[in-house]
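Chapter summary example.
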Amino acid sequence: MATAPTDDPTDDPTTAAAGRTRSWQAWGWEESAATAGQTVRLAAALAGRFGIEPPEAEAPMALTDVDLPAPRVTPPDSLAHLCSTDLRDRAAHTYGRSYRDTVRLLRGQLDHPPDVVAHPTGEADVVALLDWCASTGVAAIPFGGGSSVVGGVEADVGDTYRGVLSLDMTGLDRVQEIDRTSRAARIQAGALGPVLESQLRPHGLTLRHYPQSFEFSTLGGWLATRAGGHFATVYTHIDDLCESMRVVTPAGIMESRRLPGSGAGPSPDRLFLGSEGSLGVITEAWMRLQDRPRWKTSAGVEFPGLAGGAEAVRALAQSGLFPVNCRLLDAGEAMLSATLSPGAGALLVLGFESADHPVDFPMQRALEMCRDHGGTLPEPPSSTDSGVPGTVADDNASGAGRGGAAGEWRNTFLRAPYTRDALVRLGVICETFETACTWDRFPALHAAVTTAVEDALRRVCGTGWVTCRFTHAYPDGVAPYFSVLAPGRRGSELAQWAEIKDAASEAILAAGGTITHHHAIGRDHRPWYDRQRPDVFAAALRAAKSAVDPTGIMNPGVLIG
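The structure predicted for these 561 residues follows.
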C-alpha cells in the first residue's frame, strides 16, 4: 500500500540551508568557501610544486559591478508571478560550475545570461511556461541545481530566438508518494539531494544516489544527464534506479507505465534519460529505493603502482562481491587526496555496506584478492554498525571510513569543489575529465591520454600535473577520471584549457573510450559526441526532437543542433 511521507516539521529539508547563502559565482555556500589563510597556504604549496612565485588571489567581481543586457522578452501577466528578471537570479542561472564557468563568473563575464528566470511550483506552471516559449520563439533551458560542468545550462543558443527562459525546477521538490511494499517512491524532479533524502529518511528508505554534486543537484538533473553516483558497482547509474517518469514536452505530456521491467518495445524512459532538457522537462519519476544501510566497513589498500591496483580492481569487479566503493587513486592523486607520501604508490579506497547483514566477510575476501595483486593494508578496516535497522550515522560516505587514508580521501573529496574555486582565483588551471573503456583497452588508453595531456601541458603551460583515479568499476571495464593542475597565464586560462581539453578528448576517442562517463554532453562535449554516436542514431534523435519539440525551443545546442 502506498503511504504519504511524514509531515513532521522537524524533517523540513529547508532547515539544512538556514543561515547560509548560495554563491551566485562559485561552488556551493558562500560561508564554506576557502578562507584567506587557506588560500595563502594553497598558493605556497603551488609555488613549491611548480617552482613559481606564490600567486596572488584574484578578487572576484562584485555582483553590483556586473552589467547585464536588459531582458529582451517580457512574460505575459498570467506568468509574471512565476518569473524574475532580478540581477542575482539571472547571474546565478547564466552558467553551471565547470572550470570554464567559474573563471568567467569570477570576472563577471556573463556573455549569455537568460532573459528571464522562471520558478514553477507545479507541473501546470511548467506546461504554461513551455506553451508561452513555443508560441513566442523563446528558448527554454531546464535548470536544476546548476552544477553542470559541460555547459549544459548555458544560454548560448544563437540568434534565432527572441530570448531565453531559464526554468528553475527546485520549487517542485516533494516526495509525493511512497510504496513501501515495492520499495519505491514518486518524487518531483526539482528535489535537491538533501531535500529528497530528508523526506525518505523517516521511512527507513534511501535512494542512495550520491554524486559529488549531491548537495547542489536535483533528481531531474540526475535523470536528464544519466548521472553516476559515488558507488563504484551495481547501484551507481541513475538509469537503473528509475522505474518510470513523467515529462512535459512542447507536444504534450509523456508518462511511462510503472513496472519493474518490460519487453514492450523500446523503453520510453530511455529516450528521455540523458536527453539533457533537449526533448522536454522531467517533472517527476518513480524511483527504486533501498533500505537504509546498517552495516558499513571500509579500508585503504596501498599498491606499488597503478597497474597492480588496476588488476585488483578488475578482479574485484568480476568477483561478484560488488563493493559500494572501489576507487583507485594513482600516486599523484593519492598524495593530493589522501595525504600519502610522495612516491608511496596507488591507493584503493574500498567499502562495503548492507541493510541486511554484516559485511565483514566480503571485506576480508576482497582484501585477500588485493593481497594477491600486491596490495598491503597499513591499517585494519574501519567498521560501523548503527545498531538500529534503517538508520546509519553517515548518509553520504560512499562506504569510506573517517579514519586513515580512506577518511582523508573522503574529506578531500567533499571539499574539492571549494578548493577548485580557490585555485581558480590563484590563476591555476584545474579541471577534470572522465571516460570509460573496456579492461583490455585500459592500459593503452591510460598511456595515450596521459602522454597527450602531459605534452599539452608542457606546450601550453610550461609545466603541469595530470593524475588519474577510477570512479566506477564494471566486470567488463572501468571509468578512469583524470585531473589536471597547471599554472595559467592571467587572462589566457580559458584558451589554455581549451587546447588541453582538445588534446585529451582526441586521445580518448582514438583509444576507444567514451567522451563522457557521467558528466553528460552539454555544449562542451558536442564536437566529440557528434563523432562518437552512430549517424543513424543521430538521425533518429533529430526525428524524435522534431516530434516532441516541433519549434525547437528546448535547450538548443545540447545533444543536437
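To summarize the output: The mean pLDDT is 92.
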